[in-house]
C-alpha cells in the first residue's frame, strides 16, 4: 500500500469503528426494555441476549446507518484491496468514499433530506470508480 493511500484507509477504518459503536452507544442512551427499565452498559454493548427495544427514531436510524455502512464497506473494501495491491488507487475516489460515508451518517441520523441521498450516491460513485480502476 502506498503512503498516500494509508491515510484514507486509516480514516475509513476509524469511520467504520465509530459507526459500528454508534448503535450500541445510542442503544444505551435511547432504549428501554419492555418493562421500562434501561439496559446497563454491558447489556447494550454485549451479546444482547435480552435485546432492548429502540424507543427513539435516532436509535433506529443509528442501527440502519450501521447496517448500510457494513453493506457499503463490503462493496468498497475488495476494490480498495485490489487497487492497493496493484498500486493504482484513484486516491481522489478513496477520499470521496471516506468523505461521503462521513457525511452520510449524520445526515441519516438527523434526517437531512437530500444530503443523505447525495452522500450515498457519492459513495456509490466512488465504489464504482474504484472497481473500474481495479479491473
Tell me what you see in this structure.
The structure is a single chain. By secondary structure, this protein is mainly α. The chain has 5 helices and 2 strands; from the N terminus they run αβαβααα. Strands 1-2 form a two-stranded antiparallel sheet. α1 packs antiparallel against α3. The longest helix is centred in the middle third of the chain and has 30 residues. The two termini are about 15 Å apart. The mean pLDDT is about 80.
Which SSEs are present, and which pair or pack?
Layout: H1 3-30, E1 31-32, H2 41-45, E2 53-54, H3 57-86, H4 91-109, H5 115-134
Antiparallel strand pairs: 1-2
Helix pairs in contact: 1-3, 1-4, 3-4, 3-5, 4-5
Brief descriptors of the model:
mainly alpha, 135 residues, 76% helix
- Low-confidence regions: none
Shape type: elongated
Can you count the beta strands? 2
N-to-C CA distance: 17 Å
Decide which structural class fits the backbone: mainly alpha
Rg over alpha carbons: 17 Å
In percent, how helical is the residue content?
over 70%
Spatial strand arrangement across the major sheet: 1-2
Average of the residue pLDDT scores: 81
The H/E string reads HEHEHHH
Number of helices in the DSSP assignment? 5
Question: How would you sum up the major sheet?
Answer: 2 strands, antiparallel
Strand content: under 5%
